Amino acid sequence: MSEQIGLFAEGSASDKPEVQAIIERVQTLHQTLHKYNYQYYVLDDPTVPDSEYDALFHELKAIEVKHPELITPDSPTQRVGDKPLTAFQTVDHEMPMLSLDNVFNEEEMRAFDVRVKKVLDQPESADIEYACEPKLDGIAASLLYENGLLVRGATRGDGNRGEDITMNLRTVASIPLRLSGTGYPERLEVRGEVYMPKKGFEKLNQSALESGEKLFVNPRNAAAGSLRQLDPKLTAKRPLEFCCYSVGIVEGGSIPNSHFDVLNQLKEWGFLTNPEMARVDNVEQCIAYYQSLLNKRDTLPYEIDGIVFKVNDFDLQDQLGFVSRAPRWAIAHKFPAQEKITVLRDVEFQVGRTGAITPVGRLDPVFVGGVTVSNVTLHNMDEVERLGLMIGDSVIVRRAGDVIPQVVKVVEDRRPEDAKPVIMLTSCPVCDSEVERTEGEAVARCTGGLVCAAQRKEAFVHFASRKAMEIDGLGEKLINVLVDKGLVTRLGDLFRLEAKTLASLERMGEKSAEKLINALEQSKQTTFARFLYSLGIREVGEATAQNLAKAFGNLEALMSASVERLNEVEDIGPIVAEHIVCFFENESNREAITDLIAQGVRWESVEVKDPSELPLAGTTYVLTGSLERVSRTEGKELLQSLGAKVAGSVSKKTSCVVAGPGAGSKLAKAEELGVEVIDEDAFIVLLSGYGIEVE
Fold first, then answer.
1. Domain match, 165 and 214 both
2. Catalytic pick among 35, 135, 515, 652
C-alpha cells in the first residue's frame, strides 16, 4: 500500500496533516475489517454486530471512491471484480495436487497402517502419529500467496493442471486477501476445500425455488457451479467457505515440521481450519475418531463423506513418498453410503468402447447420497445372478463411496408376482452382431468391432481425449454427428476431414471448422506412449502405455512381442499381456495403425534403457527457487531421463538440491542436513556432462 500512499501524498493539493489523516484512517479501516473478518469466518467468534462492520466497510468504500489512488489489491472492498471473464485460463500446478486412496472399513484402515510401518521399516506394534480431518464434500482449490498477498487461485483440475479462478475465490470471505501476523514464507501455496454449508445451500435453493430457477442437487454441486461462474459477482452471492487442509509450494521461509502444526500455523495466518481436526497416537485412535465423527455426521453444519488420515510427521512423509497418483502417507476412510429402497422397472444393455455389454437398471427415481438416481449399472450378468435380481423387484440402492450408484440387495419379500427374469442378449443391441462371452470372464462382448457404431463412437471419443491424442474441439457430441452421418468409420478418417465438410454441420461454422482442422493437424505430432493409449487396447491405461513405451521404444518391437516378453514389463500381468497380443494380431487393428501413420501421425522412438544402468540411478534431486535457463518442469524431466528421482521436499535421502533465486525453506533444510546444493549454472554443467545441452 506504501506506493499508492506515496503517490497520493505527492499529488494531493491538500495540507499534509489532512493527507496523513486520510492515509492513517484507511490503514486503520483495513486492519479493523480484516480483524473482524478473521473473527467471524475463522474463529466463528464475532465481536461486533453486522451493522458495525457494514458501517466501517461503507466508510472505507467512500474514501476509495473519492481517492481511488488509495485502493490496494488487499482492500476489503476489492473482493469482487467489476468485469466478467470470457473464459477460464489454464494453470500448471508447480507441485501436483494428488488424489487420495480410499478405505471403507476398519480392516482396510489397519492394513494401511501396516503398509506405512513396512515402508518405514518399523514393527507392526509401533505407534504412528496421525493427523485427522473430516473430508469435506466440496471442490479442491489452491491459493498462492507472494509476500503475504493472494496472487492466484486455481482448481485442482487433473492434479497437474487446473483453471485460474482467482477472481471467484477472492469473493469467498474466509479466504484472506492478505495473510495475518508475521513469519509466513515469501511464496506460500495453501490448499483446501471450497464448500457450501448446509444452511447456505438450503437458503440458496429456497431462493431459486421462489424465483422459478433450477435447484441444485446437493451442496457440492452448488459449490462447483458457483466457482464456475464467469462473473465473480454471481459467485459473491453464493454462501461459500474455504477450509485449508495442506500446503504446497513453500519458498523463502519455513513452516512447522508436522501436518497438525502447519494447520494451526495457517489458522494464525488467517485461514479457516476445521474445528474437528485432531492428532492421535495410533491407528486404533484413528478408528475411534472415525466412529465419533460418523455418529455426529448429520449434526455437522457441512457435508462430509469420510475422514482423511495423514502421517503427521513430514520427515516420515518424505520417507513414505508416493505411489502412482496418491501419497503413501495419507488415506481417506470413507463413510458408509446412504441407502434407499426403490423399484427396478427394466434392464437395458449398453455397449462400451471395447464391446463390453453392460446391463443397466432403470429405477423409479430415488434421492440417495445427495443425488437423484434413476439409472444404475449392474456391471455384468454374474452380478445380476449374484443378487438374484428380477425386473419389478424392490432393491436397496446406495452410492458406493458416495459416488457410484449401486444395487446392494434385493428385498425379496416385496417381489411382485409378475416379476420377470433378466435375460442376456444373444446379439448386439446396436449392430446385431453376435454376443460372445469368453470362458472365465464375467463380461459379454459384441463381436462387431468397428462395425458396431457404439464401439466406433466410444473409440473415437477415447482417441481424441486429452490424455490420448488431445484433439481440442473434438468432443463426444461432434463425434456422434460424424459417425451418424458416415463421415468417419475408422480412426484415420478423422485426418481426412475437410473444413468445408465440417463447416456444413450444425453449430460448426467456418471458424470452428478451421480451428478443428488445425487441432487435428497439431495432434499428429505426439508421443509413443500417448499413441499407444489412444488405441484403446483393453486394460492399457496411461501408466501402462508409458511402461510399454519405455520397455520397447518403438511400435515394431511392441507389435511383435510375445506374451512372455510382455510379462516382463512393469505392472503387466498375463491377462493384460494377452489383450495386447490379441490386439496387434487383429488384422483390422493393424490396418487402422497403418492408416493413421499414412495420415501423418508420428512420434519419436523412445530409447530403451535399463533403469539401473542410467547415470543418476539411485539418486534423489530437489529443484527449488526460480530457474532461468531451464524451467523446473523441464529440469525434472531431464533428471528423470538420467534415472534420478525428483522429490518435492528435502530429507536425509536427498542427494542434491538445485537452488535458483528465491530458494527458501528447502535450501535452508538442505544446508541444515548437509545436503549438496548447486546453482543453475552448475546444474547445466551437470547435464552437459551427460550429453544434454541447454540453450
1. yes
2. 135
